[in-house]
Amino acid sequence: MSKKLVEAMADLDEDLVLEEVKALVGQKVPAMDIIASLQEGMGIVGKRFEEKEYFLSELIMSAEIFNEASKLLGDGTGGAGNAGTSKYGTFVMGTIYDDIHDIGKNIVTTVMSSNGFNVVDLGVDVPTAKYVEAIKQYKPKVIGISCLLTTAFDNIKECIQTLEKEGLRKDIKILIGGGPVDEATCKYVGADHVCKNAQETVEYSKKYMGIN
What we know:
The protein is built from nine helices and five strands, in the order ααααβαβαβαβαβα. By secondary structure, the chain is α/β, with parallel strands linked by helices. The chain folds into two domains: about 5-75, Methyltransferase, Methionine Synthase (B12-binding Domains), Chain A, domain 1; about 90-210, Rossmann fold. The chain has a five-stranded parallel β-sheet with strand order 2-1-3-4-5, with helices on both faces.
């Protein structure tokens, strides 16, 4: 573990992060060890966000720095969001059908990826069948459904009911999020939890998977 890299990542010092990653690569440090240091720094960023020392802009910035640093590692990482770098399990995420908003979804997938999850991004306007297919293929323990339109709440409900009928519901937790989504929405659609931001998604997923 590179203490210098961990601290640079935690402090959002992009220049120092990239400089240190290049130095470690030059020293033939394994890519996975470098990723581990970056993820350790991301963990500190998450704590600072929870303590309101950092805000959403810093959270997004940290994910962008992580991605830039990962690019310097080439094929040794398998890509920041691939299973090759996943410390934890797979997280499937998409914006429900009839909704094409992607900003919130993109922030969540990026932050989840940079915190060690293997992220499968289904995109926007995602039909129920695509969720069913992804769950059968990737066997995630947690999935995320994004929605910024109240008119699409019934679509989330339909999706979750279909997952239940397909026998896929009992083994996963379903997280929902988006501007108009609240606890009442969660109860209405039959989801497990409302995540107000990307960091809450990370923490809930870690807790459910038994990760400290």
